[in-house]
Amino acid sequence: MVDFSIDYSALQTVQQKMRNLADDAGSGGATGVFREIGEATASERRSVLGSADLSSAFNLFYSRSSSRTKQAKDGLTQLADTFKGVSDTFFQADAQLASSGGLMGSKLGLDDWKNQKAAYDQWVSDDKAWHDYLEKIGAADYFDQHPDAHIGDVCSADSPPGFCEAWQNDLDNHDVTVPDDPGAPPPKPSDDPPTSYTYEDDKGKVDVRLELDDDHNVMKETSTITTPNGQSYTSVTTYDSAPQYVTLEDGTRMDVRDYTMETTYADGSKTTSTVVINDDGSGTMTMTDGDGKVTVSTRSGPDADWSEPEDQ
């Protein structure tokens, strides 16, 4: 699986603590009886303290102490927003990395499954061609009774079976294709391809789901990260078409199909990114946030970083 680049749970915890501090600062940081007297009216304060002079002095002290802490409220709120922005940005980067080139499908073992299926399907086809040929030259019964025999060894014996003449004639006839014995079958993969992955530890849970077309190409990827404190991030990548492979100048084979990625952050806000990849690996990513703000990033090639988003 992809190693996600940051601990979202830690950032969420820091963000929440910052907001709690901001809430406290908004009230001047006072608690208990101290706050009750400080927030009371002048007459209520005199009644409690028993002296107008003491009430006035207490009011001056409370006002000055609370005004300083209240000044911190905006700063703490901005800092909490910064931590949220860092968390969301890193998740966006992780999601883009995971969706790039169908990386999730590769990590789930889908590529291995497809290779194994192709090898097994080819063996089935070759085995049928071989047995059809044995039937044609009258050797089917012999090899049913001697499944480990090799036709070359059998027909090299001093007194070979009658079908060997037909086999030898076909070998000498360039207009006839004699199939090879495919031998034992390769491992048969499961009937269904792997389309899901779940991993959980003390840092949270990662859940990945794939949707495939009839040719087992990844057409949609859904990745969800859930932190220990219940915060959830989800990325849904939908591809516009089946894979469109090109060979770059360095010989690298790359899928250049376009895709759309919708990211849902822990607070429920969403960002939609539409990615267009060119045949040389360069591309344009247009992002729209939950407020409708549109920004555009570009990259110069397949290994280049996306540029800083620019407002549109």
Overall description:
The chain is built from 9 helices and 11 strands. The chain has 3 domains: 8-83; 114-172, no CATH class; 196-311, no CATH class. Strand 5 and strand 6 form a beta hairpin. The strands form 2 sheets. A 9-stranded antiparallel sheet has the order 1-2-3-4-7-8-9-10-11, covered by helices on one side. A two-stranded antiparallel sheet has the order 5-6. The radius of gyration is 35 Å and the shape is elongated. The protein has 312 residues and is of the alpha+beta class. Helix 1 (8-26) packs antiparallel against helix 4 and helix 3 (42-49) packs across helix 4. The model is unreliable at 1-11, 26-32 and 95-101 (pLDDT under 50). Helix content is 43%, strand content 21%.
Secondary structure elements and their pairing?
Blueprint: H1 8-26, H2 32-39, H3 42-49, H4 52-99, H5 103-107, H6 110-136, H7 140-145, H8 151-154, H9 163-172, E1 196-201, E2 204-212, E3 218-226, E4 232-239, E5 245-247, E6 253-255, E7 259-264, E8 270-277, E9 283-289, E10 294-299, E11 310-311
Helix pairs in contact: 1-4, 3-4
